[in-house]
Amino acid sequence: MRSRPRILASSSRRPATLAGLIEVGKRVVSNFAEHRMATYAAALAYRGLFGLFPFMLLLVMLLGIFGPPKAVDRLVEEAKAQQTEQFPQQLQPVVEQGREQIKPLEDVARRAQKQADGELILIGIGVALWSVSALASTLADAFNTAYGLVDTRRWWKVLALSLASGPIVALAVIVAVVLMLAGTQLVEGVAAVLGLRELFVLLWGWLHYPVALVLLWVALSFVYRYSPAVTQPLRSVWLGAALAVLAWAVTSVGFSFYLANFADYGVTYGSLGAAVGLLVYLDLSASIVLAGAEMNAALHPSSADSERSRASERAGEL
What we know:
This protein has 13 helices and two strands. It has helices at 18-34, 37-66, 71-81, 92-102, 105-114, 118-147, 155-181, 184-194, 197-226, 238-261, 265-269, 273-298, 303-317, and strands spanning 6-7, 230-231.
């Protein structure tokens, strides 16, 4: 008989003093190394790099079928018209690396939009779902390791969760990135449709970064809540999600500074420089997400307590 996912008590060990914060920080660093989260981060970066583009191409095909006429062409032209000077100086190197990596996909996106038919859509859906679900499955394995759990859920439940959470989170990340990088022309077009052109454009200059970060926080809270084989209240994961999003924002600025002043992947790796830079950035981002999971796990009963309680449950069922 399979044991049910462990239910965490709502009373978490939240530090109330500076000493408590330091203790939790030490525990997070120690567990991050002990659980080999750097290895999981590398796997997530690899799967993310190869899973993101099939998912984006699927969105392009769906937009070409169900979206307004020439919507794909307008989006491509808008992306090409973006100037790195429009973004904060600290983020310009990362934006430029992303643009260099996406440029080769322009022709692929146009062909996918023109050739989108029933059979191609089915193939695209299959490839995209497999890619993002594999990413979600790897993420769940890492979270279970952080909590000291062995996933005893039925395989079809894990598969269904991966197929559901993978696309949702991938779409949320893409939307958040678009919100942060959306150009003035695109924003003005959306505002004109809503009848809020002047007010919307004025507010957008101040709110698009906070809105994008909040969206990432919601998506990450969803992942922290439902991916591990443990039942826990949503309030038990929001702190780790918030700290992870803030750390990701700071890391993005720091990585941009590093690219602008110290590293030139194009010189070292040639035509692969943009891909290598993006892979490094994805590895850093994955490490931060996993550190957030370790933070949530550190604020709850320890892995040893978890193992003892589950062992007692199994003994009682025999």
